[in-house]
Design a protein that fits this description.
Blueprint (H helix, E strand, L loop, with lengths): L7 E2 L7 E2 L16 E2 L4 E2 L1 H10 L17 H19 L6 H6 L6 E4 L6 E2 L4 H6 L3 E4 L9 H4 L7 H22 L1 H22 L10 H17 L4 H17 L6 H19 L6 H27 L1
Antiparallel strand pairs: 1-2, 3-4, 5-6, 5-7
Amino acid sequence: MTQQPVAYPCYRHPAAATYIRCQRCGRPICGQCMISASVGFQCPECVAEGARQTRQNDGPYGGRRSANPSLTTIVLIALNAVIWAAISATGGALSRLVDILALAPVGRCLSAADARSYYPDVTADACRLMADGSWQPGVAEGAYWQLLTSAFTHIEIFHIGMNMLALWFLGPSLERALGRVRFLAIYLISALAASVVVLWLSDPSASALGASGGVFGLIGALLVLAYKVHGDVRSVLIWLGINVVYTFIGPGSISWQGHLGGLLGGLAAAMIVAYAPRAGRSRLQLLGLLGLTVLLLALAVVRILQLG
């Protein structure tokens, strides 16, 4: 003999008898109250609570998902292209824009008559007394903007082409995972870290330029995320290894210091973003990234005081 199911009054409409219960809380719900879920039905309160707990537009590491994950990368590529075009139109390697935007740890006395020449070991005061002297300050003399502008400065088309191609492959996927703000923060911190390591480890009389530091930072960020989700770390390490080998055997003067700094900056920034606890995650990420930026700026200031 089978037992007949018992009808209960709806918890919101007591006059309505129902055989249906909410799948989450178990309360009886009538036809007016039941809301279809992935399994069974839920009451309005449980649906509202679930919506509060799960923000549909949040990314896996906090923040809002980008509606167009390629947009930030496109803007970065466009900015690099505009600066490269301006340099090409004003003399290429001899353009004054290169002297202004590229990272020079210390200033140089340039020849006002011949853009290809400069006077080594001439101080700023002595340069200003020379009829042919034109002093171009470096970071140690107050050209602090070079710490970031150098990451957007290129001369050769092959150089910008390779960097922008790598940025195009890396950027959208990382922005899709991290969100626009976190992606851009990691990129800029990587570029800053690259400049700081150049200040400390490179010849102060040499200059550095290019987006390679930021690109290496994105490779570092990709490595952190792949490890975090137990992804294919080996493929990232192989790609990193190829870029490291090219750094030392590739043509031209490649700044291994900038590549190293960018990689370390990207690793550190991505670890802050990826491993921040879920409780208060956005605040901890902000504090962590600000702390890392302050540390890099402090290291830059110490080196600038030494060079000065």
